[in-house]
Amino acid sequence: MDVFMGMIGLFGFSFPPKNWALCAGQIMPISQNTALFSLLGTTYGGDGVQTFALPDLRGRVPNGQGQGPGLSDYQMGQVAGTESVTLLQSQMPQHNHLLNVSGMGGTQNTPAGNVTAQVLSSEEQPLNAFGATANATANPQAIGLSGNSLPHDNLSPYLTMNYSIALNGIYPSRN
């Protein structure tokens, strides 16, 4: 197989082959890698005077450049995405949490196994605030906030392998 300089390969072993380097964002001297620099430039980093960087695919998935129909436009070297996300209230679908209650007079003095009901009061009868079955819904503002605002994983299932870039090989010509 012919190898093109700057070609990225995926390997099932943990080291880069000879004349390849891990795609780990290393800073490279231009003076020792002029041909590779002429292909990559500072797309992935470096100062463009003395150094340039190799792509860093650690914890990242490659994404094709350009814009497909109905898709966003992606530029070479663009980095985006995050491993975890904390949803804001404004990002959640509008919803409510209903509190089921009874409009009948309470028959129980304990909340265990019961629902909130009208309070009955008389001089002979103690106050009862709970009934056996719900037949109404309380005002949605009767329920407080829930959730802890903690981030959750935002990763697709993955298998970690070794991305490496060819430091030497055939210099690719343009069509």
Question: How would you characterize this protein structure?
Answer:
The relative contact order is 0.27. The protein contains 1 helix and 13 strands; from the N terminus they run E-E-E-H-E-E-E-E-E-E-E-E-E-E. It has one helix at 34-40, and strands at 8-11, 20-22, 27-29, 51-53, 66-67, 73-74, 84-85, 100-105, 115-120, 128-131, 136-137, 152-153, 162-166. The protein is mostly beta strands and 175 residues long. 4% of the residues lie in helices and 25% in strands. The longest helix has 7 residues, at 34-40. Strands 10-9-8-11 form a 4-stranded mixed β-sheet, with no helix packed on it.
Name the features:
single chain; 175 residues; mainly beta; 13 strands; 4% helix; Phage_tail_collar_dom_sf; Phage_tail_collar_dom
Low-confidence stretches: none
Largest sheet, strands/sense/barrel:
4 strands, mixed
How many helices?
1
**In terms of structural class, how would the helical and strand content be classed?**
mainly beta
Task: Provide the succession of SSEs.
Answer: EEEHEEEEEEEEEE
Radius of gyration: 31 Å
Mean pLDDT: 87
N/C terminus separation: 20 Å
The percentage of residues in β strands lies in 25-35%
The 3D shape can be described as: rod-shaped
Count of DSSP E strands? 13
* Strand adjacency order, main sheet: 10-9-8-11
The share of residues in helices is under 10%
Produce the secondary structure layout.
Elements: E1 8-11, E2 20-22, E3 27-29, H1 34-40, E4 51-53, E5 66-67, E6 73-74, E7 84-85, E8 100-105, E9 115-120, E10 128-131, E11 136-137, E12 152-153, E13 162-166
Parallel strand pairs: 8-9
Antiparallel strand pairs: 1-13, 2-13, 3-4, 5-6, 7-12, 8-11, 9-10
